[in-house]
Fold:
Amino acid sequence: MNPTHQRQQVDTACGCGSGCAASPAVGGPMASKATAVEPHRFRIANMDCASEESEIRRALDGVAGIRGLQFNLGDRELTIAAEDHALRLALDAVRKAGFKPEPLGVEDKSDGATAAAPTGFWASWGKLIAALGLAVAAEGLAFALPDSWPARALGMALAAVAITLAGFSVYGKGLSALRQGRLNINALMTVAVTGAFLIGQWPEAAMVMALYAIAEAIEARAVDRARNAIKSLLALAPEQAEVRQGDGSWTRVGVKAVVVDATVRIRPGERVPLDGVVTLGQSAIDQSPVTGESLPIDKAPGDEVYAGTINQSAALEFRVTAPASDSTLARIIHAVEQAQSSRAPTQRFVDRFAAIYTPAVFILAVAVALLAPWLAGLTWIQAVYKALVLLVIACPCALVISTPVTVVSGLAAGARRGILIKGGVYLEDARKIKAVALDKTGTITEGKPRLVAFEPMDTSLDQRVLEGLAKSLAARSDHPVSKAIAEGLSTADLEVGEFQAVAGRGVQGIIGNHSYALANHRWIEERGQCSAELEARLAVHEEAGRTVTLLANSERVMAICAVADTIKPSSAQAVADLRSLGVTPVMLTGDNIATARTVGSQAGIAEVRGNLLPEDKLQAIGELQQRLGITAMTGDGINDAPALAKADIGFAMGAAGTHTAMEAADVVVMNDDLRRLPETIRLSKRTHAVLWQNISLALGIKLVFLLLAIFDNASMWMAVFADMGASLLVVFNGLRLLGRQQSK
Structure:
């Protein structure tokens, strides 16, 4: 599979508090197994932006002995794999960078985002409201008593308290950034507010800091929607399960304590607590939280159930197949979190642009402060004030936050529909797909063949005897076609000796001292048992889209078993949707060409290729890439691994509960609905459009107010409203992706 693009650590100029926390889970490599070092987890309350992650990484670059780092911005957690002496040095470096790491226990699984965030009304909103009130009071005193020294002194005191209440964290991180020669929003706000205070604009300085802090808090609440869209999946699985004890009684225990192979009971209306296989009972399960399927699925003994799904009609008992930490739901959450560490191309562009934009405007502000008195006839106070306004306008927060919140919203929207996209790069690039290579069995068709015809070649032979021979051989094979034959015949099994499965050809064995084979057409030809009459009868079945298996003894073919795999009801609609999006569907299958063409015709696929080996599919993908452009491949993540690796984007179909498929593909479709492919492309198109809408909004608003500032028509108030207004605007625009449901 194409390797997931690793996150490029670019120091964006955003330090925008929780507002940039739209990239909650940022993975980094941990210590290798060869260097077993215990990881240590820390909560850093003021680490809430990708820029701050970069700052911490830079602070730790010079520390020897660190084996691995892992960031989770959503929970404000940092995991460090290092020996004790290196860990101490690392923590000192983090503290010098302006952050306060607090150790967490290994078993501490509380919601980091909640724990890290301020609690209580005063901590979250009270201080900000108080700061705004003090800033308004300072502004009122300056307006009412501009020449009164007592009023001015009181106004300064009120402004200082307001700045302290609203901007303590900003000042801490801003001063740290300035000491290290870095320019981010915290540094810019620190310089701007301090400068305004020193030149006598303390009411405005206090108001700017208070408004900035309030807007930041609103912004943080907004981006939490994108973060919680992922975290809310955790709440789908109940915390307790009803488990059968050794004496036969039932006891409710925490799901983390339930071991594999334990028996769990669920009543109607309850959520399934763990992954398992039904052992007793029949019911309908609503799997929409995991797979996105709109209709409940009937479950009986032997069927799989997934944590977080809802039992609807009757009680069930099931055997647990995975611990709570490795359930399908847990793996979905992990996959989406890891996906957020892969930056989309637009994100990388924005990071590079912001890294140039902010220093350029900072230099412009310095130039204005130094040169405006000489070139424009301004006073030094006026020049400095104009420069400070430019600094506030220079804040790239809206620009930088515009991309991660949109990407996370897109990833979350896909996850809600059972589409796991393994990174922002695939989310954005899916819109470029020009061709989709589709496997036949299990993708276009149901993947559940059934016997549709049993035809003796010699009417003198008893059909019941022939059926018994065919069923006896088929029942001992786990091949889907053999299973269909065994299930379709009602005769009793016979004893089979020396049973052998011949790869790519069929099965054989001894029944009643005679050798029999259940063979495909190729093997019959190799055995020299083919005839013109047989070829004619086979052609009829193959043209009807059937897979033919032949019962033969050592002398001749005795009967024909025709098996058909029906097309999924959704396949034709999915193919039509792909065509409407300008995507060319191509069927690649190992089945015979006649069957492939029949299925292709039913699904609306014009280009069909049959009798393909894995290496043939690989070659076909390369040819499609050269002829049509960006090509996707669908498969199960195992059998089609070479083709999936060769394709630009690989889709694993029906991957619920399948570890290998989830690891192998770039996009994982949790159910078998092919319509998820055009949904992914449409989601990619909308995400790309919103990304560039946000970039245009952020830069356009910046440009307007930059021009206003140059021509003396902008104040610091206006600059703050413009910056934070733009930030909120792009955040809410990105969140629109969460609210839009895909068509079913």
